[in-house]
């Protein structure tokens, strides 16, 4: 039984149940169709492994990470497990600080319930949009080695969200076989990045922990800021007209380069430095996946040009006003920029240095591009030349 002192900032179980309760239903498919989709995604994931490694020249030290085809609630449960692991040091600090505050532990129980609902709402939103994901920080399964079906320490897993893939392929009116393989190529690239570059996971985790370690925000203040941000984006607790006005203001701020996302709520100058490095590496990873997906695509995906054109148009224009505002709150607009900027960096670096020259990026944290180099790939290429200072 969990004591008051062990209460997290977020009631994760309530977050999962809330997300499952309000998640949008997936597309209608028969039981046989569902089985066929799952089987095909598994086949494509296996085929993608060969295609990606042949194209990139990357070889995995540990290829035992599992592939899971999940529904929307399954994606939520998997990500909550990862969140709990990554955020545990911050949660521990918050509990210690709360315990030193008179009445803090008692108030925490109710606060965690409210926050659990809010987080559940966000997870519900995301669960209908994610097509696939390499879950870098999947928690370990005690006593189970890699390859046993559980998770060894430091192992990740590839998630493919079947109902979302079917929904998008129908919405875009593209060839299902081609689209499913195209998605798997992107996600398999992420799996290859982390399995072929053993230091990458630990580097990312250390950067994230350094970012969180700089947070010196009172737990109640953090929760209230999150709640206000969510309500301003979703219109919860506001009349419809006020909600629309808030969304318009946020959209205008985004166009000016301003506005607040969740990460902006807790930044210090030191966090901004760390976030710049994280932005650069995430741009590299996402851009590399897009580059590989399109590089392999013409050989194995017959309708890749049509898929890319329609999917890019959907990324740019496929959201309503409130939807766009919520995406900004969650940092999803930044992720779209990472796809674009990162792909340009990878393309320019490969054109200049060749694939072997580009693959020097995976040598160590010191060879990763900076945020500035993502925008100016020629500077990274010059830095990587033999004898460069």
Automatic annotation (TrEMBL):
Region (Disordered): 232-252
InterPro entries: CHP03883_F420-assoc (IPR022454), Zinicin_2 (IPR018766), Zinicin_2_N (IPR042271)
Gene3D superfamilies according to UniProt: Zincin-like metallopeptidase, N-terminal domain
Biased composition (Low complexity): 240-252
Superkingdom of origin: Bacteria
Short name of any one Pfam family annotated for the protein: Zincin_2
Name of the featured protein: Coenzyme F420 biosynthesis-associated protein
Source organism (scientific name): Streptomyces hoynatensis
């Amino acid at each position: 039984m969990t004591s008051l002192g062990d209460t997290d900032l977020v009631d994760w179980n309530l977050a999962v149940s809330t997300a499952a309760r309000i998640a949008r239903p997936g597309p209608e498919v028969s039981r046989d169709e569902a089985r066929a989709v799952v089987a095909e995604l598994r086949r494509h994931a296996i085929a993608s492994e060969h295609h990606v490694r042949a194209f990139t020249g990357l070889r995995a030290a540990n290829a035992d990470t599992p592939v899971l085809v999940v529904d929307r609630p399954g994606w939520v449960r998997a990500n909550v497990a990862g969140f709990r692991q990554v955020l545990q040091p911050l949660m521990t600090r918050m509990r210690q600080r709360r315990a030193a505050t008179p009445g803090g532990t008692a108030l925490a129980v109710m606060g965690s319930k409210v926050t659990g609902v809010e987080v559940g709402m966000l997870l519900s939103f995301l669960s209908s949009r994610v097509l696939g994901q390499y879950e870098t920080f999947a928690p370990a399964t005690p006593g189970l080695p890699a390859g046993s079906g559980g998770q060894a320490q430091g192992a990740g897993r590839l998630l493919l969200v079947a109902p979302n893939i079917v929904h998008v392929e129908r919405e875009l009116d593209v060839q299902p076989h081609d689209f499913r393989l195209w998605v798997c190529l992107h996600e398999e690239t992420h799996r290859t990045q982390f399995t072929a570059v053993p230091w990458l996971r630990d580097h990312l985790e250390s950067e994230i922990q350094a970012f969180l370690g700089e947070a010196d925000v009172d737990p109640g203040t953090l929760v209230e800021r999150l709640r206000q941000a969510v309500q301003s984006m979703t219109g919860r607790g506001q009349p419809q007209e006020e909600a629309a006005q808030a969304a318009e203001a946020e959209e205008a701020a985004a166009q000016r380069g301003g506005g607040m996302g969740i990460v902006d709520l807790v930044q210090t100058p030191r966090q901004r430095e760390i976030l710049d490095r994280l932005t650069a590496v995430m741009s590299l990873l996402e851009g590399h996946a897009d580059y590989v997906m399109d590089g392999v695509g013409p050989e194995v995906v017959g309708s890749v040009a049509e898929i890319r054109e329609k999917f890019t148009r959907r990324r740019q224009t496929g959201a309503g006003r409130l939807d766009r505002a919520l995406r900004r709150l969650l940092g999803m607009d930044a992720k779209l920029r990472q796809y674009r900027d990162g792909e340009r960096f990878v393309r320019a670096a490969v054109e200049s240095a060749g694939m072997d020259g580009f693959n020097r990026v995976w040598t160590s944290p010191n060879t990763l591009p900076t945020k500035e180099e993502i925008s100016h790939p020629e500077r990274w290429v010059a830095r990587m030349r033999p004898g460069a200072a």
